[in-house]
Amino acid sequence: FVLTILKSCERAKEDLRQINGELDKLDFAAKYQFDVNYVKDGSEYAKVIEYARYLDEREQLGGSGEGQMIFDTMAVVSNEEGEKLEAEMKRIINRIIEKNSEEAIARFADYRNYMNYEILMSNQVLTRAKLSRQTGYNSGAEVQIPYLLILSSALLMIYNQRVNSTRLVFIDEPFAKMDPGNVKLMLKFMREQRLQVIFCSPDKTESIGNECEVILPVLRVHADSMQLGIVQFHEENVSSL
């Protein structure tokens, strides 16, 4: 179980490294990167990871004979500490079993709970500053732009691995907190990445409508009823969304 968790975490960290590679290619004034690390707070999640790395280390170096001698020399965790970790794992797993709770089991089986996540931002003023500590000082656009960039980069990582891909993106009100200039900048970026974007924009139609290839006006006539208007095309801008 613990080795499965560790391998899932490592795969996720590799995916995020690839996303960071895509983010690094972007030509924006600010740069954004994921910073992902294992929890080190003394919690049960941290103990599971510590024991998993101990087992993985043993597996990599070998468990008997000459391999055991190498392990004894190079191991970060001693055999005595490993035995303590194993006993701790038994207590943790027995506690989960005794609870007989599907929610508790699901929580421990979810590899995402074993890592801490942060987005780092660098610009003319800041260097690798934690975005979570900047949101109280930034405008809505300065918070929304990095999340859109990261979402796009994650999709690009997937789409770029496929020869025939629709490169389709659905986003609900992605530009709600952006001014027209930032909206056009984001749309330009999405066009350059050859993404096909379908989005809802209830209050930006006049300012960004000519940036879009197709506009579908929708009118809410009742609380549970929508009416589709006349489809508008902007044929003169064939390269736009």
Quick overview of this protein structure:
By secondary structure, this protein is an alpha+beta fold. It has helices at residues 2-24, 44-61, 65-74, 79-99, 102-109, 140-159, 180-192, 205-208, and strands spanning 31-38, 115-122, 129-130, 168-172, 196-200, 214-215, 218-222, 225-228, 232-233.
Itemize the secondary structure elements and their pairings.
Layout: H1 2-24, E1 31-38, H2 44-61, H3 65-74, H4 79-99, H5 102-109, E2 115-122, E3 129-130, H6 140-159, E4 168-172, H7 180-192, E5 196-200, H8 205-208, E6 214-215, E7 218-222, E8 225-228, E9 232-233
Helix pairs in contact: 1-2, 1-6, 2-4
What does this structure look like?
The protein has 241 residues and is an alpha+beta fold. Helices cover 49% and strands 17% of the residues. It has helices at residues 2-24, 44-61, 65-74, 79-99, 102-109, 140-159, 180-192, 205-208; strands at residues 31-38, 115-122, 129-130, 168-172, 196-200, 214-215, 218-222, 225-228, 232-233. The protein has a 3-stranded antiparallel β-sheet with strand order 1-2-3. Strands 4-5 form a two-stranded parallel ribbon. The chain has a two-stranded antiparallel ribbon with strand order 6-9. Helix 7 links the parallel strand 4 and strand 5. Helix 1 (2-24) packs across helix 6 (140-159) and helix 2 crosses helix 4 (79-99). Residues 67-74 have low confidence and may be disordered.
